[in-house]
């Protein structure tokens, strides 16, 4: 009994350390903190909220001194912004740029960890030729101002682009920038390359689904099981829209000779509600997209063209912005409410890291396909053996199985066997993939019985569930 208790205690603390590692080392997860609202909590409360999460970077659209001060000594990276309206003065007057840095950076750094200044938002695709021409001089003047106070190597300067800078994005390998923007982009990219600043982009699978509202497109956008999309130039099968969009930008950058320029996702998100006529908004879709995106980033699998490293990604958004114009969805992107509670849980809370990520639930639209079967994987009868395997209980919902799958594969385990082309991809059902992933987690965690729980939806079995060429890890107990 004592040895069992000791073993349990040791494993408990090892599991806590594992959870803490995921909670404290996710520098690739950021969030947008917009302020077009009249009901936001004070910056000090927001700073405490952020410290209770695994969010390590915050993007501001301006340079609110109260927020920058509130984030001092938190270790949270801060992106501040110069507005589109500031670009003409920044471009034409180096003194204006110096005064901007002296007012918005110098008083706060390094206690407030400012890491990036974005000059303007989606300027190039605004088609304001005057602003487009002034963008690079504005950026250069800000860089020179930072250099003058010896912060040029610590704080980067860039601008934020929409996906519309691309002339085409499908398939990802064929993506190129629009010829109308090439001359401006070339100068900006030369600056990015010379200073090590990122090419920041706003990919929104949500908008991609709105332009192509088929059930299979929704699954592709929400990281749900789908047939994938083959890039015939590279023979890469893309399994989600986010990777396809980011790799399209990578291909366009590479085609211009800027393979060294890093990509940062400045915005991406999904609204949890909208007006009656809007396609795509909804609580389940928002939970699926954000929860599965976070699990995807945590897996560190990267994208097909940038494997093994997660792209820095700023979720949109921290709070709803109730004063924003436009359709209802524009005011419904917030992951947190003004009272600091979660709008819905996607596993960002440090105290909730041991909870499976939000399920990839099917869309609640009339055109959605039926849930995949939750029956046991097709194949020969499981082999008998003396080992121990963790398998789902009967009658577990697809939503819970998908949550278990996300949780297991989001811990950095090698789930390639259930990816397209893997030995366990077929049958392509949530039940089959979840069974493999849950057992993989159980084996990796030391095969202790309490790691085969998954919110009381799993059980231990002495029957080897391996089938055909799909081998489930297992061993003697």
CATH architecture of the largest domain, by name, is: Alpha-Beta Barrel
Rounded radius of gyration (Å): 24 Å
* CATH 4th-level superfamily of the largest domain: Glycosidases
CATH topology of the largest domain: TIM Barrel
Quote the average pLDDT.
Answer: 86
The run of helices and strands is: HEHEHEHHEHEEEHEHHEEHEHEEEEHHEE
List low-pLDDT spans.
Answer: 1-25, 353-386
Summarize the main sheet: 8 strands, parallel, barrel
How is the secondary structure organized here?
Layout: H1 2-24, E1 29-33, H2 43-51, E2 57-60, H3 65-70, E3 77-82, H4 87-92, H5 94-104, E4 114-121, H6 129-148, E5 156-162, E6 166-168, E7 176-177, H7 182-195, E8 199-202, H8 205-210, H9 215-221, E9 229-231, E10 236-238, H10 241-255, E11 263-268, H11 283-298, E12 302-303, E13 306-307, E14 313-315, E15 383-392, H12 398-409, H13 430-444, E16 458-464, E17 475-476
Parallel strand pairs: 1-2, 1-14, 2-3, 3-4, 4-5, 5-8, 8-11, 11-14
Antiparallel strand pairs: 6-7, 9-10, 12-13, 15-16, 15-17
Description:
The protein is an alpha/beta fold. The protein has 2 domains: 25-336, TIM Barrel, CATH 3.20.20.80; 389-461, no CATH class. It contains 13 helices and 17 strands. The chain has helices at 2-24, 43-51, 65-70, 87-92, 94-104, 129-148, 182-195, 205-210, 215-221, 241-255, 283-298, 398-409, 430-444, and strands spanning 29-33, 57-60, 77-82, 114-121, 156-162, 166-168, 176-177, 199-202, 229-231, 236-238, 263-268, 302-303, 306-307, 313-315, 383-392, 458-464, 475-476. The strands form 5 sheets. Strands 1-2-3-4-5-8-11-14 form an 8-stranded parallel barrel, surrounded by 4 helices. Strands 16-15-17 form a 3-stranded antiparallel beta sheet, with helices on one face. A hairpin with a 4-residue loop joins strand 9 and strand 10 (236-238). The two termini are 17 Å apart.
């Amino acid at each position: 009994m004592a040895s069992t208790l000791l073993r349990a205690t040791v494993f408990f603390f090892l599991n806590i350390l594992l959870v803490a590692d995921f909670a404290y080392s996710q520098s690739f997860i950021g969030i947008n903190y917009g302020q077009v609202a009249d009901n936001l909590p004070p910056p000090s409360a927001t700073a405490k909220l952020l410290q209770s999460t695994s969010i390590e970077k915050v993007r501001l659209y301006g340079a609110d001194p109260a927020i920058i001060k509130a984030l001092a000594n938190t270790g949270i990276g801060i992106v501040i912004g110069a507005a589109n309206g500031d670009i003409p003065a920044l471009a034409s007057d180096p003194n204006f740029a110096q005064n901007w840095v002296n007012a918005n950076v110098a008083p706060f750094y390094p206690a407030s960890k400012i890491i990036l200044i974005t000059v303007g938002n989606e300027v190039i695709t605004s088609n304001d030729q005057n602003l487009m021409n002034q963008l690079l001089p504005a950026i250069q003047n800000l860089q020179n101002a930072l250099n003058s106070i010896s912060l040029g190597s610590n704080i980067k300067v860039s601008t934020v682009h929409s996906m519309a800078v691309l002339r085409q994005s499908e398939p990802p390998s064929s993506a190129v920038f629009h010829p109308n923007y090439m001359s401006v982009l070339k100068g900006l990219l030369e600056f990015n390359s010379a200073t090590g600043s990122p090419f920041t982009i706003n990919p929104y699978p949500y908008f991609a689904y709105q332009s192509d509202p088929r059930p299979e497109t929704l699954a592709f956008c929400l990281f749900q099981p789908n047939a994938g999309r083959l890039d015939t130039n590279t023979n890469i099968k893309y399994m989600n829209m986010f990777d396809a969009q980011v790799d399209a930008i990578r291909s366009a950058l590479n085609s211009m000779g800027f393979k060294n320029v890093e990509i940062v996702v400045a915005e991406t998100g999904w609204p949890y509600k909208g007006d009656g006529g809007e396609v795509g908004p909804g609580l389940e879709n928002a939970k699926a997209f954000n929860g599965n995106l976070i699990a995807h980033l945590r897996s560190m699998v990267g994208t097909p063209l940038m494997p093994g490293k997660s792209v820095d990604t700023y979720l949109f958004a921290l709070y709803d912005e109730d004063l924003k114009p436009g359709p209802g969805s524009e005011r419904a992107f917030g992951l947190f409410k003004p009272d600091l509670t979660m709008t819905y849980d996607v596993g960002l809370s440090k105290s909730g890291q041991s909870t499976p990520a939000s399920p990839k639930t099917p869309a609640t639209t009339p055109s959605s396909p039926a849930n995949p079967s939750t029956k046991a994987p097709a194949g020969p009868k499981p082999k008998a053996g003396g080992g121990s395997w963790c398998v789902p209980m009967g009658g577990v919902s697809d939503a819970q199985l998908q949550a278990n799958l996300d949780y297991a594969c989001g811990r950095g385990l090698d789930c390639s066997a259930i990816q397209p082309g893997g030995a366990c991809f077929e049958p392509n059902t949530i039940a089959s993939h979840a069974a493999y992933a849950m057992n993989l987690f159980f084996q990796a965690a030391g095969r202790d019985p309490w790691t085969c729980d998954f919110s009381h939806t799993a059980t231990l079995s002495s029957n080897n569930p391996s089938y055909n060429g799909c081998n489930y890890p297992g061993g003697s107990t």
